[in-house]
Amino acid sequence: MFRLPLGPEGAELRPLETWQADEFLAHMDRARETVGEQNGLPDVVRDLAESRAFLRTYAERQAADSGRLYGIWLDGTLVGGVLFRTFDPVHGVAEAGCWLEPAAVGQGLVTRACRTVIDWAFTVRGMRRVEWHVATDNAPSIAVARRLGMTREGVQRSAYVHRGRRLDMELWAVLSEEWHKPASS
């Protein structure tokens, strides 16, 4: 297992695995209300069996090279995560996403964690494009996409149902050649 520092003392990125189902459920319980405002994850992880099932799904996706899941820990406590919801090395396209509980907001953890996994996707795995799908009213997630240097490509109207409400979704993306472009260019 690896542990990558994320900047602030005590912050690190690690794989989030099935054996951590108890810890993941406790994290979801702390984050349920705020994360659930924009993200369906708390609605599918309501008990230990669902926590295990969700983590097992990502273990299977990783084994099939079609997804990845990583946790963000702060001072030894799981406070969020980043993932590749989809990962298609044949076509070179992945969809990244994130979530974070309120106690860890404002420290740059999600942006640093996303940079780490996106950089890996481009430099190690040879991906050509990483996408970011976000509800049009999710300002914090849109801000992350901007900080990652992504380009807003459009809006998919009424594309996603969350808690009985149809949402418009923005599509953001960054291409490998943009990711590696020097900052001064």
TrEMBL record:
PROSITE patterns for the chain: GNAT
Keywords per UniProt: Transferase
Keyword Transferase: yes
N-acetyltransferase domain location: 11-174
InterPro entries documented for this protein: Acyl_CoA_acyltransferase, GNAT_dom, Ribosomal_N-acetyltransferase
One Gene Ontology cellular component annotation held by this UniProt entry: cytoplasm
Entry protein name: GNAT family N-acetyltransferase
Molecular function per GO: protein N-terminal-serine acetyltransferase activity; protein-N-terminal-alanine acetyltransferase activity
